[in-house]
Amino acid sequence: MPLARDYYPLEGDGVLRDQSQDPFAADCASHETLVTDSYGTDEGPITTVCVAVYRPDGQRVGTLCGAVSLKTIERIVNEGHSLFDGSCYILDQKGRYISVADNVPWSYEPLGSHPDTDASLIAAAADSDEEQSGESVLHGEKNYITVLPMDNAPWLVLECAPAKNVDVYVEKMGTLFLLLAALASMLFFALLHVLISWRRRDEIILTDALTGCGSRIACEHMLRRLEYDRSHATSILYFDLNDFKTINDTQGHEMGDLVLRLFSRQLREAFEDIGFVGRLGGDEFIVIATDTPPEELHRICTAMRARLRQQSVRSLGRPLTFSYGCATRAAAAATTLSELLNEADQAMYAAKEAYHQQHPASR
């Protein structure tokens, strides 16, 4: 924003004068915005800000000029910078301090004119138009200061904090840090306990207590997670134990639980390295695998069938068998996993029917 220097709208006796023929009017007409040097009034220093005015069709129709009180600006800025009982000053580009204290005549005294003031950072900010920070002496007292050029205005904002106040604060913060470190340690272990509790809760919710397989909720979570991942082929195997109801009815539920644990152990050993193993409920289990050819899945099932028969005869005195169905969704296929699960379920029932036809007594 251009700075209009040496433009003062008041005559020597304080009467407003006609400026239409002054260079000021020409500068206003040729710029979008304009800020004048500050000038004194009975109410304190003010500056004039001029902004171009346009009609809706884009044609410029004039310039809006208004007076801005530096006293008001400094008071607002200073109220927002009371950290460490510090102060805020508004300076012009020459480092002159605009005095706006109540009941004190307005003055424009250079801050650096005091013999016990170091104005080097102020000069550096004015010369470079960039923020400057560091230690400096103001009125004989060491301060930590920051000098910031104001956007779109010919002023500098000097923020300062007495070093003695900052040092006391740092010392207190050191003590506070030790207390916070102790508190943080206690909070850490409390949080760790909470996280372990949450993990244990998730394990309880997502793990079937009887078999150690994923619970029905875990099955649903896995299906939702893989639903929209069509970058991989996905296969679902649906398992059901043969004659499980007969075992429950004739040998009791304790034997039924033993059968479920034996089967689930064989199922996890066979498939946990390549996919998810879950129990839907009762004697129904599923396996979800990605990028595994169906023929490989069938080979694993065949090998598991032989191991289960051998282990069940040794442990239970009778062979255990199962029926299963397999369905695969190719990568990028539109089939939903809900449809795929139903397809695997239907394939399992077809296998179950074939088993009953071969073993009529099992019905």
3D structure, described in words:
Helices cover 43% and strands 27% of the residues. The protein is α+β, with helices and mostly antiparallel strands and 363 residues long. Among the domains are: 1-68, no CATH class; 216-362, Reverse transcriptase/Diguanylate cyclase domain (Alpha-Beta Plaits, 2-Layer Sandwich), CATH 3.30.70.270. The strands form four sheets. Strands 1, 2, 3, 4 and 5 form a five-stranded mixed β-sheet that branches. Strands 6-11-10-9 form a four-stranded antiparallel β-sheet. A four-stranded antiparallel β-sheet has the order 13-14-12-15, sandwiched between helices. Helix 6 (244-251) packs antiparallel against helix 7 and helix 7 packs antiparallel against helix 8. Mean pLDDT is 78; it is low at 1-8.
Helix content: 40-55%
Instruction: Spell out the CATH superfamily of the domain at 216-362.
Output: Reverse transcriptase/Diguanylate cyclase domain
How many β strands by DSSP? 15
Q: Count of helices?
A: 9
Overall mean confidence score, pLDDT: 78
Stretches where pLDDT falls below 50 for ≥5 residues?
1-8
- Taking all Cα atoms into account, the compactness measure Rg is 42 Å
Order of helices and strands: EHEEEEHEEEHEEEHHEHHEEHEH
Classified by CATH, the class of the domain at 216-362 is Alpha Beta
Gross CATH architecture of the domain at 216-362: 2-Layer Sandwich
How many strands, which pairing sense, and closed or not: the largest β-sheet? 5 strands, mixed
Structural class: alpha+beta
For the record, give the distance between the C-alpha atoms at the N and C termini, rounded to a whole number.
93 Å
